[in-house]
Specification:
With 291 residues, this protein is an alpha/beta fold. The chain has one domain (22-273): Alpha/Beta hydrolase fold, catalytic domain (Rossmann fold), CATH 3.40.50.1820. It is built from eight helices and eight strands; from the N terminus they run ααβββαβααβαββαβα. Strands 1-2-4-3-5-6-7-8 form an eight-stranded mixed β-sheet, with helices on both faces. Helix 6 links the parallel strand 5 (157-163) and strand 6. Helix 3 (83-96) packs across helix 8 (251-273). The chain is globular and about 65 Å long. The termini are far apart. 42% of the residues are buried. The structure holds 2-acetamido-2-deoxy-beta-D-glucopyranose (3 copies). Residues 41, 247, 249-250 line the site of one 2-acetamido-2-deoxy-beta-D-glucopyranose. One 2-acetamido-2-deoxy-beta-D-glucopyranose binds next to loops.
Length: 291
């Protein structure tokens, strides 16, 4: 091996170690089994929003009242722009006077009914690593934030996501200071350790399928204060209920979707309405969810 080869191999190895040191890679081994198996659900819903371009990326925008409507970023699951997902954010936007923007991070190449489940775990792991926070999701998110600062004059944003999007939301809530309220719904590959880096208020909404998130919640409560976090587990709704796998024929899921919508709406309105750059004070606070 020549010296330049050594240098290249060394640089690659160093880069890899730096990424590892920054945060653990998305790990499919800790993704709930339900997530790796269950398929998107068919729907006849007709989305109410519009789609625009930012560079080479589409952005779905829910209907909104006016320029003052609070901008909230939403990160979908790996099934991309699914009409079930659009229905859930259309409803939330109407309930909270939000302008919810859903970037097409996967550039029109999500997993679909025909490519899911992937033939093995390795294939899924590779797919997710090519769309990691470090690879391009952080850069895309920063570009979206800059764009909406220009378009609306706002400088603080809400952000939430489900499944894969939940993991991306935790990264954003840890690194991007513009995010002032966040929520994760049935997240995947989120570890308790990650709670130690979260800086934005964050509400946890697991389904019946994710690991216990109370330890994560306890860390957030101690670091951010009781009013700047919350935890509600839906014990009778499966992983996926807030995304492409929403089943509007299942009353337990409809109930979970409605309650999730109400909790996020209230939490985000409260967090985003304060002018101060510091966290909310928590005296006499009553959580909208159940701990
Ligand atoms: C989603 O809704 C749009 C608008 O009604 C429709 O054109 C599209 O075919 C739907 N997608 C699927 C996969 O059904
Ligand atoms: C949706 O829920 C209904 C009611 O529980 C159930 O009969 C149906 O099989 C579900 N559909 C899918 C695709 O899981
Ligand atoms: C908060 O900020 C808004 C917009 O910048 C301003 O109109 C409002 O008066 C401020 N409220 C307080 C309590 O400072």
């Amino acid at each position: 091996m020549s010296i330049s080869m050594f240098a290249i191999v060394g640089a690659i190895a160093l880069n890899f170690l730096l990424v590892l040191a920054h945060s653990p890679v998305y790990d499919v081994k800790i993704v709930p089994e339900t997530c790796k198996k269950s398929m998107p659900v068919q729907t006849n819903y007709k989305p109410l929003g519009t789609t625009r371009k930012l560079g080479d990326m589409d952005i779905y925008e829910t209907p909104y009242r006016n320029k003052a409507s609070q901008v909230v970023l939403f990160v979908y699951d790996i099934f991309g722009f699914h009409n079930n997902t659009k229905q859930n954010i259309d409803n939330l936007a109407a309930e909270g006077n939000f302008r919810i923007v859903m970037p097409d991070y996967l550039r029109g190449k999500p997993l679909t009914e025909s490519s899911f489940p992937p033939k093995d775990e390795k294939e899924l792991q590779n797919y997710l690593e090519s769309h990691s926070w470090e690879k391009h999701i952080k850069k895309d998110t920063m570009a979206v934030l800059e764009e909406y600062k220009k378009v609306t004059g706002q400088n603080k944003f809400g952000m939430f996501g489900n499944c894969w999007g939940g993991r991306m939301t935790v990264e954003a809530a840890s690194e991007l200071p513009e995010i002032k309220a966040s929520a994760i719904v049935h997240p995947s590959s989120v570890t308790t350790e990650m709670a130690k880096k979260v800086k934005a208020p964050l509400f946890l909404l697991p389904s019946q399928d994710e690991p216990d998130m109370i330890p994560f919640f306890n860390i957030l409560r101690d670091r951010l204060g009781r009013c700047n976090t919350g935890h509600r587990r839906f014990v009778d709704a499966p992983h996926g209920f807030m995304g492409a796998r929403s089943n509007y024929s299942d009353p337990a899921q409809v109930k979970a979707i409605k309650e999730t919508t109400a909790i996020i709406s209230k939490f985000f309105q409260e967090e985003l309405s304060i002018n101060s750059t510091s966290l909310r004070k928590c005296s006499n606070y009553r959580s909208p969810g159940l701990a």
